[in-house]
Amino acid sequence: MVALFALAAAALCWPGTCVTRVIPGAGGCATKSRPDCAANARDSGPYGAAAVFDVFAACLRAGLSPAGAASAVATTQQGQVAAFFGRVSDLLSLGVDEGTAWTSAEGNPETDAFIRAAQRSARAGTPLAEAVSELAAELRQTAKDKSAEKAQRAGVLIAGPLGLCFLPSFMCLGIAPVVLGLAYQLAQGELL
């Protein structure tokens, strides 16, 4: 019984789960635990970035402002792209205009296309959610193409070692007995 309480206390006091952040504009005190900064700084990859962009687009479609959507994404997601949205959310909450807030946090290759779409949307007044959804689909397709390319390259690269391993055994077990048998029969004069 004491061990169970000790395990529960250890799980509750685990580092990285004690920091919470309030989601502004979510209609209440919605909080979500965030991992520590070291875990948040890890690269989420193109699929993680696409998921973050999808969450942002869903927040925009649900009626949140870009500042509220950025804050919600920063609170609920992980990775460099979510950290980008956290910086943008902080800047927007300080009163910085959207164009400046989006460009001040650039530097990640996955967010550069998003920044261009956000600037275009801010200038033209077009809905940002559609552009972000298209960007997420494009990131997924690019990642899928790169994965297929790597798989094809691996198939080509594995042929060399397999050839080096199996060619000598094929020579010894397949061709050499036939050649030796023919040579023996020629030496005996049986084939002529």
Automatic annotation (TrEMBL):
Keywords from UniProt, A to Z, are: Cell membrane, Membrane, Transmembrane, Transmembrane helix
> Does the keyword field hold Ubl conjugation?
no
Indicate whether Transmembrane appears among the record's keywords: yes
**Pfam families recorded for this chain?**
T2SSF (PF00482)
Write down the membrane topology. Answer: Multi-pass membrane protein
InterPro entries, per database record: T2SS_GspF_dom (IPR018076)
Tell me, in one coarse class, where this protein mainly resides: membrane
| Cell compartments where the protein resides | Cell membrane
Start and end of every Type II secretion system protein GspF domain? 54-173
Q: What sections of the protein cross the membrane?
A: 166-187
GO CC terms, sorted: plasma membrane
* Protein name in UniProt: Pilus assembly protein TadC
Species in which this protein is naturally found: Hoyosella altamirensis
